[in-house]
Amino acid sequence: MAKRIYSKMETGVLTVREVAEYLRVHQATIYRLLKEQKLPAFQVGADWRFKREVIERWMIQEQIPS
Questions:
Q1: Which uninterrupted H or E stretch holds 43?
Q2: What is the arrangement of strands in the sheet containing 13-14, beginning at the earlier edge strand?
Q3: I want to staple 20 with a disulfide (CB 3.0 to 4.6 A). Which of 3, 12, 27, 65 is the partner?
């Protein structure tokens, strides 16, 4: 039986590096936002993961002036 490898687009789950590339910021910026609890994410063990659709909604919300 062949293993199925899911692409990032299929799962919609991104790593810190992928989110940094997507947002065009340094990975340190992502970790700072995580520490400040300003970026929606979840942990898998010690690693952070991000749902693409949640990050996209977060970006839209961040564009709206308070």
A1: strand 42-44
A2: 13-14, 47-51, 42-44
A3: 27
Is the model more confident about 5 or about 38? 38
**What 8-state DSSP symbol labels residue 25?**
S
The pLDDT of residue 1 is 57
Question: Which of 37, 36, 32, 42 lies closest to 12 in space, CA to CA?
Answer: 42
* Predicted TM-score (pTM) of this structure: 0.79
Q: 48 - beta bridge partners?
A: 43
Instruction: Of 13, 48, 52, 51, give the one whose Cα is nearest residue 33.
Output: 48
